[in-house]
Amino acid sequence: MWDVEIRGMASAHAIVASSIFMATVMPAVFVENFSVYGTHMVWLHCVAGSVAVVNIAVFWLLGISPPTKKNTLSYKLNRLFRSCLYFLLSCLFFHTVVVLYGAPLLESALETFSLAVLLSTLTTLRCLCILGPNVQAWIRVFSRDGAMSVWDTSLQITTGCSVIGAWLGALPIPLDWDRPWQIWPISCTLGATTGFLTGLLAAPVWIHWHRKQLTYKLK
Amino acid sequence: MKLSSSVFALLCLICELVSIALFLRGFFPVPVKSSLSDKSKETDFPAEPQTVIRIDTLKGGMPLWTVKIFYGFLKSNICVLSYVRHQALTTGSIPGFIDVVMNLNSPALLEDNLIWQAKSAGKRIIFYGDDTWVRLFPKHFMEHDGTTSFFVSDYTEVDNNVTRHLDGTLKRDDWEILILHYLGLDHIGHISGPHGSLIGPKLMEMDDIIKKIHASLISKESEGTLPNLLVLCGDHGMSETGSHGGSSEPEINTPLVLISPAFRRKAGFEEPGVLEQVDLTPTLALGLGLPISKNSVGHLIPAVFEELSLREQLRLLQINGHQLSRLLQDSNPTFHKEDGYEQFRVAEKSHGSWMTLYVDGNTSEVLSNMGKKVLKQYLEALKAMSSALSKQLGKYDMYSMIMGMIFILQVLFLLLLAMPEALSREAVVDIPLASSLLSLPFYLLCLFGSALHVLVCTSAGGPCYLCSLPWVLVFTVILLSSAFTCALVSMVARRMPTSNKTPTKGSDWTLSELDALLLIGTVGHTLSLASSSFIEEEHQTWYFLLNTLCLAIFQDVCRKYFREQRHRDEEEDRGPLLPTGAEEGPSFSPAVELGMSPGSEKWLALATPLLTLTCCRLLRSLNQTGVQWAHLPDFGHWLNSGDHKAFLSVLAAVSLVLIFLLVQRHCSLVSKIALALGLLGVYSYRAAVGNVLFPWQHSSRAVSKGTVEARFVYVFVLGILFTGVKDLLRSQVMPSAVDSGRLKSRGLWEVYSGVVLLVALLFRAHNLPTLACCLLIQTVMAQFIWKKLHYDAAQTTIMHYWFGQAFFYFQGNSNNIGTVDISVGFVGLESYVEAPAIFLTALSTYAGPLLWACHLLCFLSSQRDRAVMGLGHGSYCFALLRSIPAAFYVVLVTSLRYHLFIWSVFSPKLLYEAMHTLINTAVCLFFTFMDQERSTRP
Ligand SMILES: [Zn+2]
Ligand SMILES: [Zn+2]
């Protein structure tokens, strides 16, 4: 049982990670002069889009998301609407936090917001896919000892890693090194993506190593 | 020996301060000095080789030619205040960095200098301008009118005072040298930066004055007299923010214009060349026919003398070379190996043979070719000697540096080893000093140290500070150091078995996320000091850490208040998404405090970190500091630009009201009234100085120095401080413990509000919001976070320290000496008085860290029921937080002493670190005092 779950998660993570890889390589076919630094915004949107699509597809197919009690169309629509709202709110929240950290308020607002969208895709969207638009469940997962399944633990790890990656990525921005990746928000997005990939890789490994200690309450 | 934590911390800080002072003494080079006694008459011209005739024209002044404008750039060295620059201009020696520190007040210049040489040659000198010149050269001027330059906000009076003498003086004939020092432009730079609206008119005014002088000099020109020379130069440039003292290009490059009929008129405008500032002194000295100052390290500017005959040129070069080689012999024991010295000897020899030919009456082409060759040799020799002398400045006194470093590291290890004891409930540190004093290794170490000292001092080639100290003092240092080493070793030995016996103790001591953040932040910041870029932009590090801290606190608040909630709130889903990962939570029980309804308290607690974040974001755009982004327009510039005076007035008034509302809560009625009047006084002081307007005052009236208003505020500051101290003393003799505690807390708050009032007076008008925000954050954080979330004394101290550091930069400081606002030292003073000026400048520069430390003291002592040992823990943490970066930085600077940026980036930061340690020691002293008071009570 354990191994099956972990293996399933590892393969899901591998698919998501490969989608990021594809998003980095594929646009070169369609877009002229495509490069991660040069046409950074295109890259960013490709990554965000592909991660979103692949995440939704994978979790829908796997059926990880909590079973819905009512199967009516209006209920489903309601859920969809709430998910979109939460996603938008989380984008705004990240945008605010980034501005508070010192990003310019007006100029390059588009770049800042794109970063917020990327961060939301890497964190909130996965929460929405796995837990649904259920705030109670979110609070449970992110409070201490609240994880009830391997997916919850993986969620904790990937979310933490993405945010810490973005945090670390912001460190070298003000320095006078004049590198191409110091332009706002390249280092942050790269940091967040790297952190996310690390999280995807680390989560199955960590869970596998600690499977003795992890005792999940039954749902 | 048992010591309480606070006393232990204080002793450690004092030791550290002494060792940093020792390190600084070794680190900052002593300027190159000639061994001849100062101002001895001995410097005469060397005999011209192979000749008996002295050419008199060379002793008289500049020979006649027609007008030419010589235009170039003066490249000055890095230094701080203009005194040092005047010194560089007149003595021609490069000011050592230590001069910057020593010359905050300028005593009479004892060194051999150009002005003194001119005076003793019988030249009559007139001076108008900044009175630092008059103090530097007392009795040197036939006539002078010094204006005090310290009211940096004044840019008309200082200049008018110079100009009003000009017409009369130019008509007269009884002087040879006229020195005019215009300060207005410099002051405008300090007020509004190089792009302000005041700059243009001022430059036009200066143009007119130069035109006037030039016209009058031309009209005076007549046959037979010597030609006049007009020298136009600046002692320093202006950075993008309008200050100076750093090492950016616009700060150290200033134009130098020499206008004289003695120069040939050039057809077009030539590409200007770059010169060293020290080169001006020998050039002027030789042009005036004076001996070159002995300590001058510059070489003459060849272009100025190119119209002279070859023989005269060679003669001047020889005089200059002679002086430089003399200085080189005196300052460098291995001068024979210097290239320049050797070249000079060769050049002098060929000069001799050239003279033989010349005196023989040879006028062939051979002679002129040979002369040109000699000229070239001389010039190369001069350049080489000059640069060799400048390099002398880069020599370090390694012995003192290493001793200081060892001392600092010992203190750091002592602090680190004592951590478990110092942060225990008893807060008592046991230092095994007595046992180590009696041990054999101690005596062996003493013996070894003394032997080493003797060995180093007998073999040292260069100057060494420790060797010049009396041996009793040195022996005390060695004694202390060996005792420390022994104590350290025995403390390590004591720790060893305990850590082996109880290995389980470490595992149940879990690190909360906040602890992890505080630890990572402290270590990360310390490590970031290794990079010059991070030092230049250190404020960014602190802002970043502070933001993360606020978000971590926000998360803690969410954890505390929303764990069991079943409501669906907007804030809820935000909480878990905060940047610090969400693996482990803090281990406290959520106990709802009394006092406020839990519902509103929850929301207030939640809003507090957000409010703090918003405040920090606003303050960050108020003062743009650092190096890379310092030139960007910030809100502070916008406020000061003159067009927005009304807005600035409103902002200042609102800030002052806010300050009053936030501070008065804890004070007695008398202090409240005094505080209100004092803050009113602050506003009227700012109005008098011309920063802000009164509502009824529409046009800007005459700007005064505001001395009366400032003194009015000082009276209230002293009054409030006096009331506070009186309350503190009275609490000592109170019989009941409750009353005494209350009185003591009130006394502390009153002292705190006195400090706030003083800072409000000293801060520039646009910085008053910084102060208001500081107080606001302190109040709300104390009310809703530190009290409610049960942070222990150590955590609270670290947070206070971080806030203090961030506010140091919020108020516009940087790691560049240029941003120190020296005009603060003259608030309420008619003239420069050393002690208060230094005190006020230090206070206003370190206002941020100081206010947060004071707040910590007030907060911890009012929380005594919860954390009995709070003050001890607090002062210990303060000492540790200061020691870690200081020790690391000292080691770093020692290893990077040949780094390219050592003088421009690393050494100013070293001075800031030393000053910060001094401030922290003062704070710790106060902590210890308060802690002692508690422990002496039954
Ligand atoms: Zn100046
Ligand atoms: Zn100045």
Could you list some keywords that capture this structure?
A: 219 residues, mainly alpha, 70% helix, B: 938 residues, four-stranded mixed sheet, binds zinc ion
Report on the structure:
The complex is a heterodimer of chains A (219) and B (938). Chain A has one domain. Chain A starts with a helix and ends in a 10-residue tail after the last helix. The mean pLDDT of chain A is 82. Chain A has 219 residues and is mostly helical. Chain A has nine helices and no strands. Chain B has 938 residues and is mainly α. Among the domains of chain B are: 122 residues, no CATH class; 352 residues, no CATH class. In chain B, α13 packs antiparallel against α14, α23 packs parallel to α37 and α34 crosses α37. Bound molecules: zinc ion (2 copies). One zinc ion binds next to loops of chain B.
The strands making up the biggest β-sheet of chain B line up spatially as 6-7-2-8
How many beta-strand runs of chain B? Answer: 9
State Rg of chain A: 18 Å
Low-confidence segments of chain A, given as residue ranges, are: none
Distance between the termini of chain A: 15 Å
Entry summary:
Chain A is 70% helix and 0% strand. Chain A has 219 residues and is mainly alpha-helical.
Task: Explain the layout of strands and helices.
The complex is a heterodimer of chains A (219) and B (938).
Chain A: H1 2-25, H2 27-30, H3 40-62, H4 73-100, H5 109-122, H6 124-131, H7 135-142, H8 150-170, H9 186-209
Chain B: E1 2-4, H1 5-27, H2 57-60, E2 68-75, H3 82-91, H4 97-102, H5 114-120, E3 125-130, H6 131-136, E4 143-147, H7 157-163, H8 166-171, E5 177-180, H9 184-192, H10 199-220, E6 230-233, H11 249-252, E7 253-260, E8 273-276, H12 280-287, H13 310-331, H14 339-359, H15 365-391, H16 398-417, H17 419-422, E9 428-430, H18 433-437, H19 440-459, H20 465-468, H21 471-501, H22 505-508, H23 513-528, H24 532-536, H25 538-562, H26 570-574, H27 598-620, H28 635-640, H29 645-663, H30 669-689, H31 707-733, H32 737-762, H33 768-786, H34 793-810, H35 834-845, H36 847-862, H37 870-895, H38 902-936
Helix pairs in contact in B: 1-16, 1-37, 1-38, 13-14, 13-15, 14-15, 16-21, 16-37, 19-21, 23-25, 23-37, 25-27, 25-34, 27-33, 29-30, 29-33, 30-31, 30-32, 31-32, 32-36, 33-36, 34-36, 34-37, 36-38, 37-38
The structure holds zinc ion (2 copies).
